[in-house]
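Appendix B. Chain record.
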Amino acid sequence: MHELSWFWIALALVVPPAAGVLAAYPAWLKSETILGNLTGTTVIFGSAIALILRERVALDRLAQVCLDQGYVCLPDPSAFTRYAIYAFIGLFEVMALFYVSLMVETKVRRRGYAPEWR
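Structure tokens predicted for this chain:
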């Protein structure tokens, strides 16, 4: 209980942003930026919530093992810190998704103009 779940943190850093962009990209190409952003945000925040719930279950299991052995043990870092890590990862990934959305929207908007007018 004295270590972070580095595998799951790395997974949270890699998989949800890729899945969010892949989910949002078709809507972005059809000039539905808001719909794409909502889709990508749902994927990213949904995965963050799922990872927080996974962490809670893991901590509850470890606490139950300690209680079964007759003593109380507390996680270090605290459960709140562990949850906050996943929440902030999700928040920063959504901000990055919005930034990518702006870049894609600019490219789609400029596509309709002749190269000499860009």
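Further analysis of this model is presented in Appendix C.
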